[in-house]
Design brief:
- By secondary structure, this protein is α/β, with parallel strands linked by helices.
- It folds into two domains: 5-67, no CATH class; 81-303, Vaccinia Virus protein VP39 (Rossmann fold), CATH 3.40.50.150.
- Helix content is 54%, strand content 16%.
- The chain contains twelve helices and seven strands.
- The chain has helices at residues 5-17, 28-53, 55-67, 82-98, 101-112, 114-119, 135-146, 160-173, 209-222, 236-246, 252-264, 268-279; strands at 124-129, 151-157, 177-181, 195-201, 223-232, 284-289, 292-298.
- Strands 3-2-1-4-5-7-6 form a seven-stranded mixed sheet, with helices on both faces.
- Helix 9 (209-222) links the parallel strand 4 (195-201) and strand 5 (223-232).
- The longest helix is centred in the first third of the chain and has 26 residues, at 28-53.
C-alpha cells in the first residue's frame, strides 16, 4: 500500500519531462547532494499528484508521510558500547535464522555467480558491506563449502568489534571468509573489478539516498557482475510486523529499532531512482520477494 507505484510513476514522469531527472553530477559529493535533493523533490511531486487524484491515493500518501522518519536506530547510536552493538546485531542474526531469510539470500547470490563459477571456471569473489555480526557472510560461506564452490568472501563493517567477532567465527568454522574494517560509502582503492559481487543486506535504510547512491556508484568501479541490495518491503504490514517479530528477541531497544527501520524502508521506486542517478543507466531491476525488496544493479564486464 505504501509503495504508491502508479502515483510515483506519474510524479517521476513529470520530473523527467521537465528535465529535472536524472540530475547530473561530477563528484561523489555532488552525487550525494543531488540524490538527496531529488528524492525530496520526487516526494513533493508525488504529494501533488496524489492531491489531484484524491481519494485513497491521497490518504495513502498522507499515511506514508506520517510513517516516514529520518530517526536513527539504537544500533547506530554512537554512545552505545561495541558490546551493546554486538548484542543488537546478534539479535538480528537470530531473527533472520528464525525467519529462514539467509537461505533465500544465499540462493539469490549463488544464482548470480553461477556463470562465474561454472562458466568461467574460476574463483568468485564477494564483498559484503555493513555485514554486522556476519550472519549472511557465514551462511554463504557454509553453503559454498557444502557445494564445493570456489568462492572467496570478504565481510566488512565500520565497527571493529563486529570484525573481530566475524573473523573469530570464520576461523572457528574454517570457512573461506574473512572480515575487514571498511566504511561502506568511502571504499578504499581496490583494483578495478576486484569483486564479482557486492552485497548489502537489511541495511539500505540505514543510509541516506545520497549515501546509498555513492555506494552503488563505487560498486560499479570495483565489481564485475552486480551490486545486490536487500531490504524490507515498504508497507503498512511490515510497519507493524517488523517490530512485533523483533520484540520476540526480548530486547526493547531492538524492538524499537524494528519500528524505526520499517518506517525508513525505501519504496521500490525510490530504489529505482537512486540506482539510475548513481549509474546514469537503467541496467538494474527492483523486485519484491516478500517481505523483501531486492535491488540488483548489473555491470558490464567488458568495462573492467
Amino acid at each position: 500500500m505504501l509503495q504508491l507505484k502508479k502515483e510515483g510513476s506519474l510524479a517521476l514522469d513529470n520530473l523527467r519531462s521537465s528535465g529535472e531527472f536524472p540530475p547530473a553530477w561530477q563528484s561523489m559529493e555532488e552525487l550525494e547532494k543531488s540524490t538527496n535533493t531529488f528524492i525530496s523533490l520526487f516526494l513533493e511531486e508525488r504529494y501533488r499528484v496524489t492531491q489531484k487524484l484524491g481519494g485513497g491515493a491521497f490518504l495513502t500518501e498522507v499515511l506514508d508521510r506520517v510513517l516516514r522518519t529520518t530517526g536513527t536506530e539504537f544500533m547506530d547510536d554512537t554512545t552505545l558500547t561495541e558490546e551493546e552493538k554486538v548484542n543488537m546485531v546478534q539479535a538480528l542474526d537470530r531473527q533472520n535464522s528464525m525467519m529462514q531469510l539467509y537461505p533465500r539470500y544465499v540462493s539469490l547470490l549463488l544464482s548470480l555467480l553461477e556463470n562465474v563459477v561454472k562458466g568461467e571456471h574460476r574463483e568468485a569473489t564477494i564483498l559484503e558491506l555493513a555485514s554486522g555480526a556476519g550472519g549472511l557472510a557465514v551462511a554463504l560461506a557454509e553453503e559454498a563449502q557444502k557445494q564445493h564452490l570456489p568462492i572467496s568472501i570478504t565481510g566488512s563493517d565500520i565497527v571493529p568489534k563486529f570484525i573481530e567477532e566475524g573473523n573469530r567465527l570464520a576461523a572457528e568454522k574454517n570457512l573461506p571468509l574473512h572480515f575487514r574494517l571498511l566504511n561502506a560509502f568511502d571504499l578504499p582503492e581496490f583494483p578495478e573489478g576486484r569483486f564479482d559481487l557486492m552485497v548489502m543486506s537489511q541495511s539500505l535504510h540505514h543510509f541516506t539516498p545520497g549515501q546509498l547512491a555513492i555506494i552503488i556508484a563505487q560498486s560499479a568501479k570495483h565489481t564485475k557482475t552486480a551490486f545486490v541490495g536487500i531490504d524490507g518491503y515498504r508497507s503498512i504490514l511490515l510497519a507493524g510486523g517488523v517490530p512485533l517479530v523483533a520484540s520476540l528477541q526480548g530486547i526493547p531497544a531492538f524492538a524499537l529499532d524494528g519500528l524505526t527501520s520499517a518506517r525508513k524502508f525505501y519504496s521500490e521506486l525510490e530504489l529505482d531512482i537512486i540506482a539510475e542517478i548513481a549509474t546514469g543507466k537503467k541496467d538494474h531491476r527492483v523486485t519484491c520477494d516478500w517481505p523483501l525488496s531486492i535491488l540488483t544493479v548489473h555491470f558490464d564486464v567488458a568495462n573492467h
